Fold this protein.
Amino acid sequence: MLDVTPTPLQRLLRERRPGYTLAAPFYLSPEVFEADMEIIFGRHWIYVGVEPDVPEAGDVMVVEIGKTSVAIVRDDDNAIRAFHNVCRHRGARLVHDEKSTVGNLVCRYHSWTYDLTGNLIHAEHMGPDFKKSCHGLKPVHIRSLAGLLFICLADQPPADFDEMAAKLGPYIEPHNVRDTKVAFQKDIIEPGNWKLTMENNRECYHCGANHPELTVPLFAYGFGFAPEEMDEHDRANAERYGCLLKTRHGEWEAEGLPSKEIDELDTMITGFRTERLPLDGEGESHTLDTKAACKRLLGNLTSAKLGGLSVWTQPNSWHHFLGDHIVTFSVLPLDTERSLLRTKWLVHKDAVEGVDYDLANLTGVWEATNDQDSELVGICQQGVASPAYEPGPYSPHTEMLVEKFCNWYVGRMAAHLGR
């Protein structure tokens, strides 16, 4: 008789209570972590960087996803390609630095040499029967969404990338990612499971008490509230914000800037969400005075007062597109209890540091916020490890996107493992 006894992970997925946090093993179990790496990070589209990470022919960027190393390269025809960062001879790592520039990809072990399209072009002493054409680099699926780079390690990636790109592309294109440069990148290791990092990002319930810098440019009302708990003053401000949002959306869309919410976070395999939100104060950028951080605006934009376009993609990214700069975030799991948060600040490619922008002002709000969030993720990791931990309820007013992240995660795991 066929054994249909569910595995421990299948039982966890079946028992997940909607509207509540995940059970402790989802954050603590090495077996769950391995399944996450195989199913979520091994079979879905993962955000890894931007086209300006490899701006010129021969530029290479290396991304590590678990045990897999991927080299992303711009070839001589200006196409961006991705390959497993493994020599086809004896498996040595080909590219060792995160960023480099090469003529060809040369393995330092035995000098096997590959061109920028992945073809093996030089391999000495292999005999007359050796066929170089059979030993090219193994390709990795890579797609660009208006300049944002996504890779998929699976043989057959999810087929809905084009649908996501068709919906998100018009929102992102006015900011012209391809015509920017990476002004600064900062990597921090958060002391928590990658899902805790993502859950923390998907809500601003915690913002008022923990992010004094971030809540200067951002309206708290843009991330949910409980109207029945507000006093007259707060209710009036929330109503004012609602009117402002409706007015700004109409104005921005009339200017050719798509702004209204699209939410497919838990309804598609490649889940995503976007919306352009007003900013407080001067309303130009994510800075402490809410004014533009860079004098050189992006693309063909003529005003910095365009709010902040927020973009979220499952399973590992969020992004903020302003009139003057862009901030992108990616989360890559390191082990059960550590995650790499990689943040990039992009400005117009011709902007000059010290002339058009001050780096400390450009990065200040999100550097502070990232450090604060890292600490919060750490105390959550400590908490879920306690025997006293049990799943708690999400706020229906402010943690809707956390619930959608968990819905997406549980759904994708169950789709591959069966319930």
